[in-house]
Amino acid sequence: MCFAQGKGPAMWQFFADNPWVTVFAVITAGALLGMVRFGPVKLGAAGVLFVGLFVGALDPDIGPAVPAGVSALGLALYVYTVGLESGPAFFRELRGQLAVMAGAVVALALTAAVVGLVGHLGFGISGPFLAGGYAGIGTTTPGLAAAQAASDDPAQPAVGYAIGYPLAVVITIVFVAAIAARRTWRARRDPDSGLPSKLVTRTVQVTRDARWAEVPGVGGRRVLATEYRPAGGETIVAHTLDRLAPGDQVVLVGGEDDLQSAAAHLGVTATHDLLEDRHTVDYRRILLTDPALAGHTIAELGLEKRYGAVVSRVRRGDFDMLAHDDLVLQLDDRLRVVMPREQSTAVSAYLGDTETKVSEVNAVSLGLGLALGFLIGIPSLTLGSTTLALGTGAGPLVMGMILGWRRRTGPLVWTLPTRANLTLRQIGLLLFLAVVGLTSGYSFRQNAFSVFGLKLLAVLAIGAVVSYALMILVARLLGQSRERTMGLLSGYVGNPAILAYANGRATDSRVNAGYSTLFALAILVKIVCIQLIVGL
Fold it and tell me: What is the pTM (predicted TM-score) of this model?
């Protein structure tokens, strides 16, 4: 065996002779590196890229031995699942945030011009290196794939990406921290979050006559009632409420501030919580796993008519949302249902509530969606020496956004269960980054640690500062709140680690809303700009 010789080159040859062992060893080591905290952030999946670069730099034979096509498959899985999740938010925010989206497009285009002109004319750096660096300061993995596809030497964009990526994370964190420190931020067009960042439940003792429709927060669907006990009566499910009288008790759900206002209007917080008495009314979280119900609204479930039940909140991933009739549901949602005790089993059976289906993937919808994504990525447009195409990076992303927005077509459900979506996304991203790192490592070794590497670093630092400052300026000019601006910048850069840091500095739903607004759009714009930069 080659290990018995105790020589370094023999070990490196083992990596070249056993590429699949190498790929998954890189994923393992990279995942461990991604768990290490560097100040306020972790590298996450990007740790796989840097370990891949290190291993690939050991020997020039390692990169060429990696199986072809693995990176394209990994990338397609990643961007398609991203599109399925981000599509609904993108189209929902399209009208209200159109000006912000247009401003972000302009900022990204100006950034591409700065990187291209300063790098090429000022430092003589070729287009592929600059395109990869532009993808790096935008932390866009699909952008790196687009740069590699448009370049004669795929290793050159990876060098730029590896230099720009950590630079982007550090500089963006500084910008987000600076925004969070501003307490006098005017937001003339974005005065409040519109949605509570955290839901709470409270039993209120009514002390005065009141109309339910006049309770603060009810009209804006920020407060809802789940259980109601009239004075001297039994607890019932609060389907519809009209007039409340002294002595009544009602269970309210909403944000903390909203519930305080509603409770003050009705009376006082009750000393006894109605939720503790489950003799007549029960409540529990039920998993939506019936594909026939996915893509329908809460109202279309017909729970009130069928079982006398109401939904109070929906948990999707890590977020709780206050339920309302127009909320569209998807597989793997956890519905908190309040219902007559005797209907508990029937409601669970109706919604599915089967854990084994959570990770199941509809092979028909997944295969057809990816096929359509690859198909729309084929057409190209030639402008001079530059060829523009959606390719394998943007094609599946665009199709995923459209199908995620549509949710279903007849009996075919396009969306995936949340857990299945995240699993496929992670597998795809890890495979892509591992292969890119391995195939580009030796070129990275030759170029990054040199005067050329310092020049590229300087260009990308200038581009990053200009880019992020432009995005913040756009948000300020358009009257966006401090919290939404943090989310917009996170989505503009497109890094979940930055979003996590922003959420740690401000507990507000506008942070996540801003991220969703620009995340997918920024990826598409970056891919176009990257192909133009390669033309240099």
Answer: 0.71
